[in-house]
Amino acid sequence: MSNDAIQVVSIPPQPETADDADRPNVFVRGFRAVRRAIGRNRLVEVSYQAVVGTIGGVLAIGGLVLVPLPGPGWLVVFAGLALLATEFGWAKRLAHWLKRQLDRFWVWWRARRARRAPTRAARA
């Protein structure tokens, strides 16, 4: 066989399609598959929801106890609500509402500090 009989063909890479860009990664697909398997058995699903509810509730209530103390109180509250929101719609709505209220508080706090800053400078 001569060299002129061999033809080298390069296959260009295919562009990423919209389906691939929107497709979740392997871990998310795996977790969704596990959740679907849990949902097939009613007893397992109720048990799973009870465990998620218990752990999420303990985290959320424990975080509320930690809020006045120095440390990550709000972070723990939101972690508990995020865990609860994986199974319960009310927790998802509550987490969104709480986040909006916290954002409103910080806007108010920054405006209050900005108003008080000139009076502090005048005292000094």
Q: Beta-strand percentage?
A: under 5%
Distance between the termini: 94 Å
Number of domains: 1
Helix content: over 70%
N-to-C order of helices and strands: HHHHH
Number of strands: 0
Global structural class = mainly alpha
Largest sheet descriptor:
none
Mean pLDDT: 84
Nearest-angstrom radius of gyration? 27 Å
Question: pLDDT below 50 for ≥5 consecutive residues: which ranges?
Answer: none
Give the overall silhouette: flat
Counted by DSSP, the helix tally is 5
Question: What can you see in these coordinates?
Answer:
The protein is mainly α and 124 residues long. The chain has one domain. Helices cover 74% and strands 0% of the residues. It is built from 5 helices and no strands. The protein has helices spanning 18-22, 26-39, 42-66, 73-85, 89-123. The protein is flat. It starts with 17 loop residues before the first helix and ends with a helix. The mean pLDDT is 84.
